[in-house]
Amino acid sequence: MTMNFEDKLHEEILQTLERRSRIDMTKLTFLTTLFGIGTIGKIGIIGSQGVSDITLFGTVYIAPFVALVCDCFILRELWSVRRIGHFLSRHGCHDEQTFECFVKSMRNPFYQYGFKGLSILTIIIAAWMLVVQKGGIVLLNSSDYAWVTLSMLGWFFVDHRGYGMLKKQFDQDSGARKWFWKPLRRSELDVE
């Protein structure tokens, strides 16, 4: 059985959405693990020189950067889906063009909040855990402030700016057909 071009595009969309879902789950798994290990504190390891304490709190420093790296991968997959949808809205059959125009006008607003929200929440929780671990905000040193600043800048450029570029590229009109349907008011219906 041979697939036509549009079927291949739809198959690519499904594979991309599946990859993005796996990345989302991987992100949640890593963040939960890093925060869980970071809350343990110190553990004693028995060695040839007796018991030595190992602090596991350092894993919390890594959590925001893991979130941002996963967000880069998610943006890559989202870019692919939007690119195919944009192509279909211009060059697909009439029904696909109509559907893609509808999808563009009805994007899921919760995805944007979940996408940006989880990473900013990761940074906030990690910073809070840092303050608690150090014994207060006044005890933070310059490297702690640099870590928080780099995390926030990373979030701004990856999540906020990256998602904004995606929306600008694919969600503007840019010559595609506008959605022709609008909700009717009761007064516009011919009901007698």
For this entry, give a set of tags.
single chain; 192 residues; mainly alpha; two-stranded antiparallel ribbon; 2 strands; elongated; disordered C terminus
Structure characterization notes:
By secondary structure, this protein is mainly α. It has one domain (5-176). The protein contains five helices and two strands. A two-stranded antiparallel ribbon has the order 1-2. Strand 1 (42-47) and strand 2 form a beta hairpin. Helix 2 packs antiparallel against helix 3 (94-105) and helix 4 (109-134) packs antiparallel against helix 5 (142-170). The chain is elongated. The termini are far apart. The model is unreliable at 174-184 and 188-192 (pLDDT under 50).
Produce a short descriptive summary.
By secondary structure, this protein is mainly α. The chain contains five helices and two strands, in the order H-E-E-H-H-H-H.
Give the uncertain stretches in residue-range form. 174-184, 188-192
Distance between the termini: 53 Å
**Number of E-type strands:** 2
Return the string of H and E elements. Answer: HEEHHHH
